[in-house]
Amino acid sequence: MPSQIAPPPRLLMGPGPVNADPRVLRAMSAQLVGQYDPVMTGYMTETMGLLRGVFRTQNEQTFLVDGTSRAGIEAALVSLVEPGDRVLVPVFGRFGHLLVEIAERCGADVHTIERPWGEVFTPEEIEAAVEMVRPAVVAVVHGDTSTTLAQPLDGLGEICRRYDAILYVDATASLGGNDLATDELGLDVVTAGLQKCLGGPSGSAPITLSERAVERIVARRHTEAGIRDADEEDAAGRRIASNYLDLAQIMDYWGPRRLNHHTEATTMLYGARECARLLVEEGMDAAVERHRLHGSAMAMGVTGLGLEVYGDQRYKMNNVVGVVIPDGVVGDDVRGEMLSDYGIEIGTSFGPLHGKVWRIGTMGYNARKDAVLTTLAAFEQVLRRAGVPVPAGGGVEAAHAVYAA
Ligand SMILES: Cc1ncc(COP(=O)(O)O)c(C=O)c1O
């Protein structure tokens, strides 16, 4: 008989997931209620309201897609994109490639513009591509954790409206720790996850949709035969290719019709609601500032150890820093020793950056001074043992200087 689940204590300082806030874990240990119990539907409605605060939106259609962040992305794209639609994806890291791959699976005619990893686009570059491609949907990642950079979103909403394109943003890694005001920026659809700056486990994907996005999706509503009203007609638009991720049906489940679709993942909903409560209680500006402070302390700390930070720092995400692995050092050995000797997890990188860059996160519950200082202190010891000539106390001192400023 395998033993009960008893994971060792870990400090998760990678690019996410990070340790969940204890308040979220407590909420998730509560007993289940039935799917249509007024308590449950009440929690669902409250979660919608709290998430509007997190996304900074008035959008009525703000709710959860059950599944990891990727389910939110797929739900958005499969519901927005009809086969043959032109979709423009500005790619500046791994997750841009993911948007391309998902849009292609939706049958889209996908066009891309690319930047080398470590850089982002100017709004003018994106506008020129929109003007040329005339896409139905522009799909862009906000914070691409693979490169640790955030694409500035200012102006993109206005550009997309001018060219009558829907603007979809993957804010999985940025929401809660970096400025993202959905309505002010004119973003049509934004999706996220819980496991980064929201301080929860992965498994639930918050989403918000503007009126224009909702209109486009409702024009494709084909409700399942077994639950539709006797006189209900299909919308004229093409049926959405996925049943599970059909946002037209999911909106009817979360909305006043309460039309049965999936069985809402009760425990994940408890967790997501607490994540949102934490952020709304703290205030979104304060949460972003907390991520900026601890992210800066970590970045200055690694610089204080004599290491180089990766990418154009003007566009660095607040919540994760890329660290160039010194020549001759095996990145995975250092990560292994951080974990085995100190119980601290830091991240590797994907694709062209694997073996070249570590990624260290400061987000959600772990955007805290003690987590930053503990990580830097351990990192110094592990690097020294790996033969890197690190200045004694250089990391912790540099971080302290940020906190003292
Ligand atoms: C920007 C971005 N998009 C999408 C994902 C995929 O999220 P998930 O693993 O929750 O499906 C991640 C995960 O790291 C991410 O950072």
Automatic annotation (TrEMBL):
Transferase among keywords: yes
GO BP terms: namely: glycine biosynthetic process, by transamination of glyoxylate
The cofactor required is: pyridoxal 5'-phosphate
Instruction: Tell me where in this chain the Aminotransferase class V domain is found.
Output: 44-347
Transmembrane stretches, start-end: none
- Which residue positions does N6-(pyridoxal phosphate)lysine occur at? K196
Gene3D superfamilies recorded for this chain? Aspartate Aminotransferase, domain 1, Type I PLP-dependent aspartate aminotransferase-like (Major domain)
User: Pfam families given for it?
Assistant: Aminotran_5
SUPFAM superfamilies associated with the record: PLP-dependent transferases
Query: Which residues are involved in binding substrate?
Result: R359
Q: Which InterPro entries match?
A: Aminotrans_V_dom, PyrdxlP-dep_Trfase, PyrdxlP-dep_Trfase_major, PyrdxlP-dep_Trfase_small, SP_NH2Trfase/AEP_transaminase
Provide the alphabetized UniProt keywords: Aminotransferase, Pyridoxal phosphate, Transferase
Molecular-function annotations in GO: alanine-glyoxylate transaminase activity; L-serine-pyruvate transaminase activity
Q: Would you identify the family this protein belongs to, as annotated?
A: Belongs to the class-V pyridoxal-phosphate-dependent aminotransferase family.
Write the protein's name.
Answer: (S)-ureidoglycine-glyoxylate aminotransferase
Q: Which organism is it from?
A: Flavimobilis soli
